[in-house]
């Protein structure tokens, strides 16, 4: 008997989370001998609990599907909803009753480590009631912090945006014949993958960004000022890249804004103001021009700087997830395994989602230079393939044409 | 007798100030029957006073010239240097002695209203000593605030970046099924041209950005909160675009940071923190998620979102300036005269630089809606042609290849 497939998106958006959605939907369309209807959860599992679903099979045309592939954000809407730890909670029986009503056989969830927590719980509950619904996770996060996968969809495009923008900012910052410091604050609470990608903007030794600070190491204000002074002897206009999650040796975040102590639904601290804080620090210690730039959400939603590699892998991850579900896999996440850097080669595999959820992969310390101010060539070899290739998004009157949920 | 040409750049950088430099240099190369050597001032008139010049004729290859065309920043370096008001000051005789030594016949200066002040003073001094050096200004500013020209090179590309990014930010901000306000702070101290361009991101009524606040009108905090509340009844996730130079009816800037009172060399207040201030204001008045995004320098140095129209016009402005100088013009700035919106047609003319310098063109009040929260269709017809057409910048390993002064 044919079953239906349901797909949802969860957590923060990326430039290619919809490419994975495209992958799921197009693979499901191609599996019409096994899959009957395709449903989408609106606003993830939280929206599904409220009954918000859309009939993708009948509502999304092939043309729309193509536009979805290059649309940033989360086409289906997203949520930051944590399912109860207690699998006896009635929310689970409610969910599975609803799945049954919809004749769901395949549940695909695109998200980061918090979303994999949802996948894990649903898979464990399904197992406990002997449900045959296959529950599969598709990775997604610009933070690149999922374990057991070489990297995550969304990271490559964000990394490209960071490197590209930092190279442009360095040009912008270097036009005057005066000394200056420009601090670029880049996303990353606990893992510095995205900030580290700024190294690609550098073309030669002593070129900008001259200093890169990551949350994998402790940040020391005195050392920072002294490192700036050292570099100012060689370079007039310094560009310094910092992760939003910089912290001192006691684990206190480097930020001045009271919002840095706000906490989201998953208990993560929400950071704000590290760049602005450092701007003021430099202003008070060095009598030179200083500016801070927060790349902000543009780094995760830019469609002008999509990495073709990232976008393609995101789509294949979605397709691979559907194939895995059809083959009987459940409680697994699609993961990337790198075969080689040069030429860049990748295979796709499945990993037990319980080993992934609620964990964070950080940059290996051996990829960070001793002073904690730079990354190694090993990191460059790692990240370079991920930003390759370009996509031309359809334009109308000079602006991008995106897909919007009706 | 053949004369030499010298060209300089001054003021803040744009994405196409180097396209104008390309225009000047390529036209000068083509005028080798009249122009002997081409020199560049490093860091504008300030650098020239220190003797920093480069021999463009012998140092810049055709290949480098092509790369200059699409390189953001200011290839020759820039300055924010104000020449003395007193034309009897010895700086003028020093300058013209140096010009004479270099056999300069043509002086081209690419910049905004402050730089046109330099052009005006040099032209007046040249006149007072019966010098035959022709002094010509090429317009440049993302602020689009020069009078007597339909628009300025640099504005179109920055406007495209703003509209493009705001459309993406709106997608990013709309993924959760909760109410939120996203405040986008856009450059513009006294003129709202760039902020107003965010209207192009809007696809239909009530679409984001729902509110646009410009420095041409007075900002009222109570009215702002009430306008947000009105829109939140219709739309869950509001994107609001604000100019950095928002001020209240008493003329006080809307910002919280002490740097908003800093003053640059020309006596302009340097603003900071309007978006962050409004973020906190909304946080305190409405119990919903709020975020502020400062587009910052990326809006003026993005090469991924160059407008072909802007870039071409910038280059033609440079060429036109050289031709004008060769034809005997001096003390003039190249200006744009629009013939029609549809089809978009433009001619180039010369305007007395004395009528341009130290003035600011603001958005006509009839192009701003009555409540001061939006712009009219007349503005849309004005700005739309300026963002059209795309450029592909050369890439290497996924990142742009720019030209750098040796």
UniProtKB/TrEMBL annotation, chains A, B:
The record marks 114 as: Important for catalytic activity and substrate specificity. Keywords: Cytoplasm, Glycolysis, Kinase, Magnesium, Metal-binding, Transferase. Mg(2+) binds at residue 113. Its EC number is 2.7.1.90. It is found in: Cytoplasm. Diphosphate binds at residue 12. GO terms for biological process: fructose 6-phosphate metabolic process. InterPro entries: ATP_PFK, PFKA, Phosphofructokinase_dom, PKF_sf, PPi-PFK. Its cofactor is Mg(2+). Non-allosteric. Pathway: Carbohydrate degradation; glycolysis; D-glyceraldehyde 3-phosphate and glycerone phosphate from D-glucose: step 3/4. HAMAP family: Phosphofructokinase_II_B2. Belongs to the phosphofructokinase type A (PFKA) family. PPi-dependent PFK group II subfamily. Clade 'B2' sub-subfamily. Homodimer. Catalyzes the phosphorylation of D-fructose 6-phosphate, the first committing step of glycolysis. Uses inorganic phosphate (PPi) as phosphoryl donor instead of ATP like common ATP-dependent phosphofructokinases (ATP-PFKs), which renders the reaction reversible, and can thus function both in glycolysis and gluconeogenesis. Consistently, PPi-PFK can replace the enzymes of both the forward (ATP-PFK) and reverse (fructose-bisphosphatase (FBPase)) reactions. This is Pyrophosphate--fructose 6-phosphate 1-phosphotransferase. It comes from Lachnotalea glycerini.
């Amino acid at each position: 008997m044919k079953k239906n497939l349901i797909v949802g998106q969860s957590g923060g958006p990326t430039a290619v989370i919809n490419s994975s959605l495209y992958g799921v939907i197009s693979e499901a369309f191609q599996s019409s001998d096994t899959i009957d209807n395709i449903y989408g959860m609106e606003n993830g599992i939280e929206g599904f609990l409220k009954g918000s679903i859309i009939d993708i099979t009948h509502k999304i045309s092939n043309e729309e599907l193509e536009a979805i592939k290059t649309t940033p954000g989360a086409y289906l809407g997203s949520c930051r909803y944590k399912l109860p730890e207690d699998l006896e909670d009635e929310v689970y029986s409610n969910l599975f009753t609803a799945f049954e009503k919809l004749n769901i056989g395949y549940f695909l969830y695109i998200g980061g480590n918090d979303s994999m927590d949802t996948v894990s719980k649903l898979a464990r509950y399904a197992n406990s009631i002997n449900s045959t619904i296959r529950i599969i996770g598709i990775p997604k996060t610009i933070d690149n912090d999922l374990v057991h996968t070489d990297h995550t969809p969304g990271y490559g495009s964000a990394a490209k945006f960071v490197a590209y923008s930092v190279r442009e900012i360095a040009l912008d910052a270097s036009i005057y014949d005066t000394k200056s410091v420009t601090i670029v604050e880049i996303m990353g609470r606990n893992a510095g993958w995205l900030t580290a990608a700024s190294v690609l903007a550098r073309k030669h030794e002593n070129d900008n960004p001259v200093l890169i600070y990551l949350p994998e190491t402790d940040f020391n204000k005195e050392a920072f000022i002294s490192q700036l002074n050292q570099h100012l002897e060689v370079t007039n206009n310094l560009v310094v890249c910092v992760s939003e999650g910089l912290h001192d040796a006691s684990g206190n975040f480097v930020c001045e804004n009271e919002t840095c102590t706000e906490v989201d639904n998953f208990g993560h601290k929400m950071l704000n103001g590290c760049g602005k804080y450092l701007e003021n620090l430099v202003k008070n210690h060095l009598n030179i021009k200083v500016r801070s730039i927060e790349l902000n959400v543009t780094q995760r939603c830019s469609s002008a700087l999509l990495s073709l590699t990232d976008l393609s892998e995101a789509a294949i991850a979605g397709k691979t997830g559907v194939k895995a579900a059809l083959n009987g896999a459940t409680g697994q996440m699609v993961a990337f395994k790198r075969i080689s850097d040069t030429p860049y080669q990748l295979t796709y595999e499945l990993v037990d989602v319980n080993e992934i959820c609620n964990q964070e992969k950080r940059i290996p310390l051996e990829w960070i230079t001793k002073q904690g101010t730079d990354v190694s060539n090993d990191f460059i070899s790692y990240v370079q393939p991920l930003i390759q290739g370009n996509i031309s998004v359809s334009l109308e009157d000079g602006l991008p044409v995106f897909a919007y949920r009706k």
